[in-house]
Amino acid sequence: MGYLYKTLMKLIVIIISFIFYSCNPNNEAFTSTYKIAKKISTIQVENESLPFQWDAPTYWLPNEKSAMRSASYLVPSKNGSADLSVIYLNGDGGGLAANVNRWRKQLNLVELSEQEIINDGVDFKGEIGIFKIYEIINPENNESAFLCSIIPAKDFTIFVKLNTYSENISSLKKEFINFSSSFNYNE
């Protein structure tokens, strides 16, 4: 019994010493944290009935399409899932101002003039060409905010809208830009 007792006491002393010496004087553990850039794996999405295709992250969950939606995804975010829709319309789809102002009205924001809308959009270059992204946020309502892209193509326009909480916009923006940039023509 004496040998077992001495061995147990030595083990307890070692554990206490380990705990004591593994902490610095500020009582913080000697551990380091690193942020590793997340490589987003994508899958190319083709639909024979559409004149275009795109790359979607593999962790986005396909959602139900509707008569208007060519594609729909649930996009995981820190505050639940965001709703992303892809719609395409012939020609300019009613025009830049009409579409942006329709989205603004959905968030109870006043309409803007066409020039204000042109100035408000940020240009990006995608596979199809130059497109605009709009960040539409009502500062009085944190429940819903939009990231929208308008991608003009040969004889149609692609509209992408991400509906999420306003606090998620910045964390989803890069992903949204990459997605919107990936649209290209079916060959």
> What's the domain count?
1
Provide the CATH topology: Protein Transport Mog1p, Chain A
Helix/strand-derived class? Answer: alpha+beta
Task: Give the amount of beta strand, in percent.
Answer: 25-35%
Question: In which range does the helix fraction lie?
Answer: 25-40%
Distance between the termini: 82 Å
Q: Shape from CA axes?
A: elongated
Mean of residue pLDDT values: 84
Query: What is the CATH superfamily label?
Result: Mog1/PsbP, alpha/beta/alpha sandwich
CATH top level is Alpha Beta
| Total number of beta strands | 10
Assembly state: single chain
CATH architecture: 3-Layer(aba) Sandwich
Low-confidence stretches: 24-38
Put simply, the count of helices is 4
Radius of gyration: 26 Å
H/E order of the elements? HEEEEEHHEEEEHE
Question: What this model shows, in words?
Answer:
The protein has 187 residues and is of the alpha+beta class. It has a single domain, classed as Protein Transport Mog1p, Chain A (3-Layer(aba) Sandwich). Helices cover 27% and strands 33% of the residues. It has 4 helices and 10 strands. It has a 7-stranded antiparallel beta sheet with strand order 3-4-5-9-8-7-6, with helices on both faces. A 3-stranded antiparallel beta sheet has the order 1-2-10. The longest helix has 20 residues, at 2-21. The chain is elongated, with a radius of gyration of 26 Å. Mean pLDDT is 84; it is low at 24-38.
